[in-house]
Structure formats: C-alpha cells, structure tokens
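To whoever picks this up:

The parser on our side crashed when reading a file containing two proteins. I've narrowed it down to the boundary between the first structure block and the second sequence. Both blocks are reproduced below exactly, byte for byte. First block:
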Amino acid sequence: MIPRMQPQPTAPAAGRPLPLEGITVVSVEQAVAAPFATRQLADLGARVIKVERVDGGDFARGYDTAAAGLASHFVWCNRGKESIALDLKDPRGLEVVRRLVAEADVFMQNLAQGAAARLGLDAATLCAAHPRLIAVDISGYGATGPYADKRAYDMLVQCEAGLVSVTGTPEQPVKAGIPAADIAAAMYAFSGVLAALVRRGTTGRGGPVEVSMLEALAEWMGHPLHHAMHGGAPPARTGLAHAVIAPYDAYPTADGGRVLLSVQNDREWRRLAEQVLGTPELGTEPAFATNAARVANRDRTDALVGKALAALTADTAVARLERAGIACARLRDVREVAEHPQLAARDRWREVESPVGPLRALLPPITLPGGDTARMGAVPALGEHTEALLRAVGMTDDEIAALRRDGVAA
C-alpha cells in the first residue's frame, strides 16, 4: 500500500510571481463595470493606469463619503491603480492617452456609447493601430441594435434582463442589493482579458473584446430563463423561500435572529422532524412525507418549522440543524459579514492604503497558493500619478506646466 503523503509546506512567496506581472493596462473608466474589472487585473499583478476627468475624476468618487471620507464604491473598485487626470476633449490630453496605450498590453473603456469612437479610443481603431493590444469595450447593451444608444445604469439593466422579475416577494419585485449588472459585465471583461492574453501568447496578436451589461446579466439568468423558454412557467418570486422546495426559508429565532434552512430530500425531512422538530411522526405523515406534499402544504410546513425554531436561539438552532445534517445558515446583516468567523479564520482581511489612511479590505477570491499574495495596492487620490506618467511619456517640465495651467491635466 502506498503510504499517504503528508502535506508539504508551501513554497516561499517570492518563488512564483503574480500571473499578470509585467502586463500594463490603461483604462478610461468610471462607475463600477470597468473599474471592478481592472481592479481584478491589478490584484493579480498588472500595472493599471486609470484615466480620470480633471473635473472631479471618476464620478464614483462622489457617490458617498462612507469609507472614512472616501466613496465606498471607489474604494472597493480602485485599489492598486495609478491615477492620471486628463481632459480628453483637448487634443493634448488625448495625445497623452495615445502614448500610454502605445506601450500598453490592455486598454479598457466604459464610456457612454459612441464616446470612445469619437475619441478614436474604441477597440477596433486601437487594435488596428496596435496589433498586440487587447482592447475592451464595455457597454450597456452592445454596439448595435435598437438599444445601442440607450442609457444603461445597473438598476435599469437589472430590469431589462429580467432579474428584478424573479427577485423579491410575490407582491413586490425588487432589484438586487448589489450592482449585479455591473459586476457581471466586469467579471466577463476580466475573464475576456485573460482569455485574450492566452491567445496572444499563442498567436502574437491581441484584438477587441466586447462585453455588454445586458448580455452578461442575461447569461446569469440561466435557470429562470431556460425554465421559461423551454415550456415552464417563469419562476415565482418567493422572497427567501424556494419556489419548488419546502421547507426552504428563513425562520425567526428566540433571540431575534433568523436562520435559513434547506431540506433537499425526504430523508432530510425525516431527520428534521425527529431531531429538530421533535415530532418524528411528521416524517411519514402523508401531508409532509414528500417534497411535493410539503410544497402543496407550504404554510403548514413553514408553521411547524417556524414554531420549533422560535423556541431556540439562533446559535442553538444552527447547532441542532447541523447535528441533524440539515443545510442551514445565519441570516447576517452586512456588519456581521464584516466580522464573519470563517473569513477571520481564513485570514481574508488586509489593510490597503488610501488618501485617508489604511482601510480594511477583503483579499480577492482567487487564491494562488505557493506564490505571491494578491497585490492590494493603495487607493489613489485623483491625479496622484499624473506628473510621473506625463514624464514617462516624454513630457518636459514646460509641457507639463502648460497642461496644468490650461486645465488639461490635474
């Protein structure tokens, strides 16, 4: 018998660099979709140069002041980047971007539809001039079709993609509490860049990458969409409950908490009845013995589960459910997530620098054991790197002074 191998210590961090070391990204970006995509690239080692407006920069900087005076959206999406503030309507500002792009591996933009093309910064134009460049256009609805010029904010796209129709209660549809359309587009832009870099490694050529928020979120609508398209009724909105499984909901506990549980099969129901509800006879009673019966008698099923959990604290309820082998979870608010014991146990929190001092942030979900940890660089101040980048593209002191004087750079 081959002896079982013992776990080996991981290699020193310096032994395996981050996968995007040496990749330079230039991004004319704003809000969430492009900034979140390029932040993933920065975390994996890429150098990301963020081009912002001179008059306030990325407008996400002004969304709120919740992060010690900075905007929470901006802090979340923009660590590890260099900020250069330019007026792209001035030919001199646009020329700086063109010089930066000439030395870059990736260019990304999520300007309003048509704006990048008017500036000559659309993917088709840039890739024709720079065959090795990977150029990403992120839009709301795509470059063609009747919605091409339609304004596309996250909530609007959630509505157009049908997400809102399946989220909420029977009485009230609601949008997702996070910018789901922006995040979906960002993650497809991120993975599109990685795929294009792999292809470039084989062919030597870059090329355009196109991502639309609508198409990204429509893909995420997979189960409801396929269910409805192929003969079923659109899934009903059921709040925290499940449309076709019972019991599957959140139930109040004696200490004011809420515990969500999910019974996936009839064996689990019998265990729940015996070990948590204290009424083993319910395991075989015809009104509850099968999932179809429990769904048909959902109100009675939920009342039985709710009564049992209402007599327990949340911690006791979770402990009993876990001993019975029933899937369960605490319904946590956002502050509780920030103190989640699993995130703490896995050492997922770090501090990143910012203009207002260190801020707490999560490590990115992609873990690459045996090498450098994610590069969680500082959140930049507006135009923090303008002068250094202008010098890097060959600007003289007099030219830089003129750009600043004329409001072309900040």
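<<boundary where parser fails>>
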Amino acid sequence: MTTPDVLGFPATAPAATGIPTTATPPPDATTVPGTGAGTPASAAPPTSATRPGVDPTGRLLSQQPTFTPESARRDVPILHRTVNGKPLVWLDNGATTQKPRQVIEAVSGFYGAGNSNIHRGAHTMAREATEAYEAGRTAVARFLGAASPDEIVFVRSTTEAINLVAQSWGRANLGPGDDILVPVLEHHSNIVPWQLVAKETRARVVPVPLRPDGQIDLDAYADRLSMRTRLVAISQASNVLGTVPPLREMTALAHRYRAKVLVDGAQAVAHFPVDVQDLDADFYAFSGHKLFAPTGIGALYAKPEILEAMAPWQGGGNMIESVSFDDTRYAPVPHRLEAGTGHIAGVVGLLAAINWLTGFDRNAVAAYEAELLGYAQQALAAVPGLDLIGSAADRIAVLTFTLAGHDPVRIADWLDQDGIAVRAGHHCAQPSLAHYGLTSAARASLALYNTPEEVDQLVASLQRLRQSA
C-alpha cells in the first residue's frame, strides 16, 4: 500500500540496499531518556536533577507534546539497526545527520511517481516537478527567515555555496590590498575558497585568533577590521569546537566598515532557529545532509541587491533567457546561478526534512540539546585522561576530545566495536586543532534524537578502553 506524501507523490517503500537491517525495537514514546543502563561501574548514575529534561522535582522540562527525543527516533529507521552486533549509537551528526522516514519516502515517492525535469516542460509531470522544486525554495526561504524565495539559490552543499560567492562576488569585488577576515575556528570550506580567490585577485586572507576557550577573540576581530576589509567569512557554529559566536554583533561591526558578511550555517541549522534578516547576513549557506535531508543538496541565501549584481559562475542550461553566437541573455536570479539540471529529488527531500524538523518546537529542541550537552560534558569529565577541547559558554552539542595514550583513530575503532559511531581526524578544521597544539582528535556530535543513555554507553566504552591499556 502507498501513502501520499506532502507533495502529492505516492510514497513507496525504499528498495532493499543490501545494508544490514537487523533492528532493535523503537523506544516507547513514554520512555524517559537516560535510564543509566550504560553507566560505567566506576561512576555513580546521575540523579534525576542532572538528567536532561528533568528538574529537581522530577518534572520533565523538554518533553512537551511538540517534542520528545523518542518521537524523533521513531521516525529515523537507521537508528534501529545494529552495528557489530550492538544497537547503533549515532554520534557523528557533525559529519552527516540520519534521515527520517518522511525524507526517505518523499525521495522514493518522487522517483517512483513524479520523476521529471523541471521548468520549460509543458507536460503534467514537468509541472508537478517544477512546483515541488519551487515549493522547496519557498520552504528554505521561510526556514531561514528570508524575505523572498528569489533570495535562495540551490547548490550541492555549503562548500559549493561558498565557492559560488568567492568566484562570482569575490572576483568582481576583491582586489589588491583588500582583506578577507576568517576566524581560526573555520572549516576548511570557509578558508580554502578565500585563499584561492585572494591569490587570483591579490587580496589577503586575515586570520582572526581564538581565545583559550575556543571563542573568537572579539578584541582582535575589532582590531583587524578596517576600511580594507571587504568580507568577513564566519561559521554560525563550529564543527570541531561547537562555538557559537555573537554573530549579530560581529556583523553589525563589519557593516560599519562596509564589509560584507558570509555565514557558514552548516552546523547551525539543525540545532536552533535561524533568521538571516535578524542576523543581517549578506550571505548564508548550509547543506541539506546536515539537516536530516539527502546529500548533494544545499542552499545559498543572499541579500537581493547583492544577488542581482552577481554574474553567473557556471554556464549552461536553465540559467539563460536566450542564446545565440551573437548575444546570450541570462535568466533572472536565482536561476541565473543554477546552471544545468539541479538535484530535484534532493530538493524534494530537503522540503520533507524542513517540514519534519519544524514540526517540532525548535526552542524545545534547542533546550533539550543544551541539557544533553551539559550532561555529556559532566559524564565525560569522569573518564580519567580524557580532555575535552573548547569550552565556550555558547555552543552546540559537539564534544571533541583526546584520551591520554590513545590515538583518535584507535578510539573511534574501539567505539565502533560497541556500535558507537564517532569521527576521528582533523575534522577539516586543522587551524582550530592547531590552536590547542593538536593535529587530530575524536569527536562525538549530538542531535535531537540522541539520548542520555547513549552518552552513558559512550562513557562506558571509553572507560573500558582506558582500562584495557
């Protein structure tokens, strides 16, 4: 039996992929997270006062009807499989988030019943696909607080969005002696594109240092701003330190010098509401796969007057009004910046992901994740030899750490044997790690569907690793 999804395409069950699907039953909706089942023997189970979502009287704070971590988990099929004979504990959300069934079914439904190219087609399915694609654009605009869908350009990822701005806006607006300010906490995707365009235009990339806690040194930031500053490129949340900078204040200061501000929102959008107009960001980029949507789809927001002035960075179909060997006329924005056939199914999946996430109380989600982060910090502090990297007060639930005597890759491999997925390496943020004298670290990154019990399992496994040495 099929059921219609939000776009009107019948949703069909995805075909078998050959990936093991041995599953554990979804948790019951009334289960209170954090029963302490995975607490190491050497540590006392936390009391109800320290459990996320519970106040000292035992009243649940975050589990309102609009959001419970269990309701999110029930929607995500992969969370109910096993890895190496153990229930999967997915703590690699900073690399990619897992997909709810609503997204899986929307993509499957599009390919099974609505697949067509978009725009220009006169037949029914072309119109349906175009409507779905543009509905996705409208949803992204609403999700980011943009004034119009015309301010949204679809791209493959945050990386492609930043490269688009660097190559289109950067080539036209940067020149010798101009400064591009980039904090040390940035992902490589928000460093390397600026280095490339700076080399081409003879501009200069100026790093902004960090304080010991992983927050941007705001005094140094203010000192480096000048009338030479043309752009500030900054993440709304760090993928390795979790730091959430005071973006509104930093943007306002940059605008005093007439500098533009590009915000990398890849790590932010899944954790708290975003309003690009409130931030006064000139550009905002994010990736769908960090937002419970498919890979290969993302979006770039830009202020309309800036977007209108940006020249195409790729040529081809879809981005033109007319072509001849004498004169080619480009389409209006945003289509002018979307050469070729886009990831139509990806947009369908992104729309479904946004609908799924915004179906929860976003403020309740953010509060729950903050509680879960606090619990995880407290629990990991009980592991001898474990050092958490970064301690900024305002941060998302990212826990990057080292364990004395153990290589980060060895840590990740050990945890994997217990079904726990974390990331190890430089996390495409080598300057951030270098700030702490490191070249590699392990990282556990949490999302709305993670639970205190999973944190307990992480801690217990790390305790066993420490004792095995």
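After patching the parser it read the second block fine. Residues 124-144 form the longest helix (21 residues). Residues 195 and 255 are 22 Å apart (CA to CA).
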